[in-house]
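ok new one. same drill as before - structure tokens go in, u give me an amino acid for every spot. 85 of them this time. try not to just spam alanines like last time pls lmao
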């Protein structure tokens, strides 16, 4: 990937992570999932596993966006080091 593409992707990721819409959406999704988890019967492992998978995916998404921001920061410094995505 070209340096300009890395910087653009990181800049977009940072704007997305900091946007009120994204922050509120992730907060609401996590709150709903936690509420559903509390309401789910302990022996309903299927539903609990699905909720857990959703939560992990949201965290993975946030983590990847943050990695792109770091990669962009390194590319902007032009120190030659760009971490893997």
């Amino acid at each position: 990937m070209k340096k300009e593409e890395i910087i653009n992707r990181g800049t977009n990721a940072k704007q997305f992570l900091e946007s009120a819409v994204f922050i509120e959406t992730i907060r609401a999704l996590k709150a709903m999932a936690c509420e559903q988890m509390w309401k789910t019967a302990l022996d309903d492992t299927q539903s609990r596993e699905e909720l857990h998978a959703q939560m992990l995916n949201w965290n993975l998404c946030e983590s990847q966006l943050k990695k792109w921001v770091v990669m962009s920061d390194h590319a902007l410094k032009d120190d030659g080091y760009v971490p893997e995505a």
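Residues 20 and 72 are 22 Å apart (CA to CA). and btw The two ends are 11 Å apart (CA to CA).
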